[in-house]
Amino acid sequence: MNKWGKLSLGMVLAVGLLSGCGQNKNDNDTAASGNANTGAVTKKLIMGTSADFPPYEFHKVVDGKDTIVGFDIDIAKEIAADMGAELEVKDLPFDSLLNELSSGRVDMVISGLSPTEERKKAVELSDIYYKAEQAIVVREADKDKYATMDAVKGTKIGVQTGSIQEEIAKEIEGAKITSLGKISEIVLQLQSNRIDTAIIEGPVAKSFVKNLAGLVITDAKPEVEDDGYAIGIKKGNTELLDKVNATLKRLESEGKIDEYVAAASELAESTK
Question: Which residue windows are transmembrane per the record (predicted)?
């Protein structure tokens, strides 16, 4: 199985040294865990993500261990550090993330989350931290066939369930949409000729075609207003929202986010 094969759903990976599982104390606090030796209480910040979205979040073997990495993870680490908390990352299906957030099983969602009107009603959304274009991915033999958006009309299109790409596909005339929980599953559908095209976030698409022979990005460009990506926080938790926005403002002023994007993109494209 190649490294972009189907990932286990519900995998939980910890970033840093974690001292056990915690639950949310209330709407305005992160989970806490006690130190058995000192009795001290350490805050734990639990991040929900769907780790098949390179270079945002993806699996990579680091020092012999399967690890979730990416520039969203780098941002989450900075948020946790500014709060004096330990970061735990939960890998979940994309379409379950907001339910996990609303139920309090995760404190924040960082996973290429577009600030749609529907999401604004359901959760708190941070300031925008990154914007990127969308891409049409096809089999290499079909690159010229689907070189324009007119040519994409009426095709079988693969998208991630609950994503902005799914909304884009709904606007394409005659589209026959296949919605799946993982981008890796969409890619497999494309490779096996079950779909004709796939709409994938630009940097993510570039990473997949770099690592998988036989797939390319066409010249077709979906016409869509890019609202960028935000971090999801449980509705009413304005305390955490303010802390997240403060960290994002700092990272932007320091130029760190662009650095994280470049480093994560290079890591995603590497074969080691």
Answer: none
Alpha carbons 56 and 48: distance in angstroms, whole number: 13
Residue 34 pLDDT more than 90?
A: no
* Residue 5 DSSP code: S
Determine what percent of the chain is predicted with pLDDT higher than 90: 63
- Are 245 and 231 in contact by the 8 Å Cβ rule? The answer is no
SS3 assignment, position 166: helix
Number of domains in the chain: 2
Range of the domain at 17: 12-130+228-269
**Cα–Cα distance between 253 and 14 in angstroms, integer?**
28
Residue 113 has pLDDT above 80, yes or no: yes
Q: What does the radius of gyration of the chain's CA atoms come to, in whole angstroms?
A: 19
According to DSSP, residue 20 is labeled S
Q: Can you name the residues that pair with 52 across neighbouring β-strands?
A: 58
Q: How many CB atoms lie within 10 A of CB 262?
A: 12
CA distances (Å), 172 to each of 132, 175, 216, in order?
Answer: 20, 6, 20
